[in-house]
Write a structure and sequence with these properties.
The structure is a single chain. The protein is mainly α. It has one domain (28-370). 65% of the residues lie in helices and 2% in strands. The protein has helices at residues 5-18, 24-38, 48-69, 82-93, 98-105, 117-144, 167-176, 181-199, 202-222, 226-233, 236-244, 260-288, 292-303, 307-315, 323-339, 362-370, and strands at residues 78-80, 164-166. It has a two-stranded parallel sheet.
Length: 375
């Protein structure tokens, strides 16, 4: 018989978790994420007049996107609240985090000696790890939607071409920077239309998923040690604090150290983001004329107070700051000025994403994708 006072508690936890289904972690993530997204204001739906205006402008923006990229699309857009974006983000992320959950279980025993505390903690980590990931993922998704306009802020494969914008986040941005609602709507629509077109392509999605396999594995390894976190949670005061302050779950999320995997995903992601922004800017100018105040406000918006977006990106090994973003902007600007936005139709193919080496050699990327058998 075990004399360890923790053995009974661990046994109860194992039995409890064993009764939950394989998607318990995702249900936890969804519940926590939606609770955070509702916020202090209850997450109201967009004003009907603002949603109607967004839909009116979508028709015009869609025509300009089709003209710029030479790819026909539809003009549908859904104006949503933060909760809807949180749910969409979690559904998008779910199939990509399996490597993270697998990593938590690697090397951990399937059973444990009840008299061996270290072994018991290892088994607890293997058992509760996915659920803890659910807490972390939910916290990230809820805070992600606090100010993100759409899924376009994080270039991950999309399950379909559905387009949505958080209208209240757009109006808050416009009012904070004294901008017209229409100019913000046009820019956000163009950005989301282009992002949805690119990221929903099967070839592009497959190429990104291949890069994310190693990047997510390294991102998982970079997070705080799970067993240490679980040991601290044995103290009820620490657990209560964690549940009352879900933002604390963001503290352990770090960008992994630079490696071949992170350089590859950051090259691809930063170019995609730079392309979405350049296309949105050019389309906005073609409709409304130059908007320097909007461009400056958006650049500052992306650089400041973006904890939710930063944490979401870090889960996938993507860094939202760094010299690769400057290189990506030069990459996109150089090729756009030389060949026009249509050159980036290569991003719709499986071989279109730039490599880390090509990030500093845009013409090499151009020669490769132009002469590709898939061109």
């Amino acid at each position: 018989m075990s004399t360890d006072p923790f053995s009974g508690m661990f046994g109860d936890i194992f039995n409890l978790l064993g009764q939950q289904g394989p998607d318990a972690w995702f249900q936890t993530a969804t519940q926590l994420g939606l609770n955070i997204a509702r916020g202090e204001d209850g997450d109201p739906n967009p004003q009907p007049s603002e949603r109607q205006r967004l839909e009116e402008l979508a028709v015009l923006v869609s025509r300009h996107v089709d003209s710029a990229l030479g790819v026909a699309g539809d003009a549908s857009i859904t104006g949503v609240n933060r909760s809807a974006l949180t749910s969409a983000a979690l559904n998008q992320w779910k199939p990509l985090i399996a490597p993270m959950l697998d990593h938590l279980a690697l090397g951990l025993p399937s059973d444990a000696d009840p008299d061996n505390e270290a072994a018991m903690m290892s088994q607890l980590a293997a058992t509760i790890g996915p659920l803890f990931t659910g807490f972390q993922m939910g916290s990230v998704a809820g805070h992600f939607s606090e100010r993100a306009w759409s899924l376009a802020v994080l270039p991950l494969p999309r399950l379909d071409a559905t387009r949505m914008l958080v209208v209240n986040n757009l109006t808050s941005f416009a009012e904070a920077w004294s901008l017209e609602h229409d100019e913000v709507y046009v820019f956000a629509l163009a950005q989301e239309f282009v992002a949805a077109l690119v990221l929903s392509q099967p070839g592009t999605g497959d190429a990104l998923r291949a890069l994310l396999i190693d990047a997510v594995r390294e991102a998982s390894a970079a997070q705080s040690n799970l067993i240490d976190r679980l040991q601290s949670m044995i103290n009820p005061e620490d657990l209560n604090e964690l549940m009352s302050n879900p933002a604390a779950l963001l503290d352990g999320i770090e960008v992994p150290e630079e490696s071949d995997a992170t350089r590859a995903i950051n090259a691809a992601a930063s170019v995609l983001l730079a392309f979405f922004d350049r296309a949105a800017n050019d389309i906005t100018e073609s409709i409304l004329g130059p908007r320097p105040a909007l461009a400056e406000a958006y650049a500052r918006h992306r650089r400041s107070d973006a904890r939710g977006e930063d944490s979401a990106s870090a889960l996938f090994g993507i860094a939202t700051q760094g010299p690769h973003h400057d290189a990506a902007k030069r990459f996109v600007n150089t090729l756009t000025e030389a060949h026009g936005l249509a050159v980036f139709d290569a991003l719709l193919r499986v071989d279109g994403l730039p490599s880390a080496h090509e990030l500093d050699a845009p013409e090499q990327w151009y020669e490769r994708v132009t002469n590709s058998p898939l061109a």
